[in-house]
Specification:
alpha+beta, Immunoglobulin-like, binds (2R,3S,4R,5S)-2-(hydroxymethyl)piperidine-3,4,5-triol, 8-stranded parallel beta barrel, 739 residues, Beta-galactosidase, Chain A, domain 5, 12 helices, globular, TIM Barrel, 10-stranded antiparallel β-sheet, 3 domains
Length: 739
Amino acid sequence: MSVIFHQASREFHLCNDGISYIIKILPNDQLGQLYFGKRIHDREDFGYLLEFANRPMTSVQQDYGFSMEHVRQEYPAYGTTDFRVPALEVLQEDGSRLTNFTYESHRIFAGKPKLKDLPATYVEGEEEADTLEITLTDKLLDMKLILLYTVFNGENAIARSARFENHGKKAVHVTRAMSLSLDLPDCDYDWIQFSGAWSRERQVKARRLEQGILAVSSARGHSSHNHNPFIVLKRPEADEFQGEVMGFSLVYSGNFLAQAEVDTYNVTRVMLGINPFAFSWKLESGETFQTPEAVMAYSGEGLNGMSQTLHRLYRSRLARGVWRDRVRPVLLNNWEATYFDFNEEKLVDIAKAAREDGVELFVLDDGWFGARSSDSSGLGDWYANEERLPNGIKGLSEKIEALGMKFGLWVELEMVNPDSDLYRQHPDWALQTPGRTCSQGRNQLVLDFARKEVVDHIYNMIAKILSESKVSYIKWDMNRSITECYSKAFPADRQGEIFHRYILGVYSLYERLIQNFPEILFESCASGGGRFDAGMLYYAPQCWTSDDSDAVERIKIQYGTSFGYPVVSMGAHVSATPNHQLYRLTPLETRGNVAYFGAFGYELDLQKLSEDERKTVRKQIAFMKEYREVIQFGTFYRLQSPFEHNIAAWMVVSEDKKTALVGYYKILNDVNCEFRRLRLKGLDPDAKYEVEGKDNWFYGDELMNGGLVTTDPSAGQVIAGEVCTDFWSKIYVLKEKDR
Ligand code: DGJ
């Protein structure tokens, strides 16, 4: 059993082989937090970890004799004796926001319950996890707060969430409901966030925690390009391979807040959940509000250890469906090949060339529907444009399948152009605040997905196409943030719910589509990586990582993304040069060498390449097919950061450790440079490995300790026919030879 309850000391110890998490019912019946970290021995009483001595002069107390300001808590409230930012806030009819949730009961059970209408990690057998459910009550309000904790057996991770139930007679408004709150005893941590903008998502930004509040958030209606609902705390001495690291990841795609508050006694309070800004949820008598899930991962083996836990968990117990465990098809997407300038004949020609080179899936991007000749019209009209596609999606998909490929389709189901039949028929279906101007982004408005009839209508339109045609893949785009967020279908005192109701509507549409079309592979997208989060991975096992397809920029974007998300979830394509975002010229080999580490594909018209380039493409596709199992499902290690070095490196090792691939990327060339070695990770120390291109073999321990001697032509190791330039890169393939 990995949840132990000590009756006498009133303590819960959640543990597995790697981690311990200890909660105590305090003398005032609220919950205190005692420990989160490496597994420690169990004991009857950890009470000594509860430090709650009063402080001179400033302590304010109740009759239980201590101040909550000085206690590390589990799910704190504001307004009595704690002055820090709370995990919850409930606005009551009389205007009060005070609550006092105290322990009532608990349940410990094997397995993990589902969260209604929300994405969450899951188990496939009760033996995979144990769950602790603690029920707290506010007697005055007759409200219950249910805290759920699941500890996974074999993964150093705990999933958490909170549920509010109003059993009282009066309605209340929940104005703050975090998924996770954790008080840590000191502040000796570096905070790492993954921030950026369109086309430069998830850049690694680190700084030391200090007294005060550090936070990242989104109020854009989607998790956003700007910040990610995932943060890391690491000990200053920890690095990629050693030291204590904690990752905090929210399984949610809407507005979020991730925050660390360090008080003046250096206690750190970490919080993660729905952004309380612009949020308020009315709970009528008998109603329930469930927060999204948050996952806390602990590693004593540095940042890579934390990432590997999240990779395994998200790859196998968050992603679902038939595609979860399947290698992903090599695809070609026509967006950068044609933009809006295509017809059926042109598409079929592009697909034919792709097929010749080994591409398995042809994806038709934006522009196939309604009167969509540019981004100013047609969104919402989910039927084929007959001028461009006289045989419809049905006819085109059949032609593509006849070529021996699968067919995929782009959609942007949450949006509408004012210039569309849908908007002309239902102008009230867009989110808009009465009497206010409606802002447009990319000439489009956001549909009111808080309304079931809107979601139903969109479902019916798209389900018709999917039923009639041979569609094996959907790229689900979302190209603007939400403004003037107001739904005409809800009363004034429920408008604070619309951002959350919107994302619940998105989840419900996804759920319906994946249930009714279970064979379709979904790739989520929001102008590239504007909604790359754990919530989406529950519905779409891969996500278009960024609209920036430049190989050099992609090294950073994929490196940053890998902290919280598995390699297989990152859509990564080879595109044409000069690159369409940066106008940079990079070698085709390097474009492939970067894109291999993801769900691989092409974003160009192969007919426009030279015969030599086509040969390279054929080799790349054959290479990916040979090694995608290892790349997409192996153990990934970041070796050297592009945020800190001119040379970046990463590697994957197969589960049986017999195969490994190392990606080595030099950004700018240097001349007559030092000899360079890469100390590899994760190999079998006793196994002999052959490294492709070297006529020698090496023990795993040599490669991990002495290092792999790189063959950088600028370092004097002149290799016949190989010239090192800017943006040069190399993939080293290691294979175990007979022992
Ligand atoms: C934004 C996406 O990220 C692109 O890949 C492409 O699908 C365009 N939208 C199409 O409008």
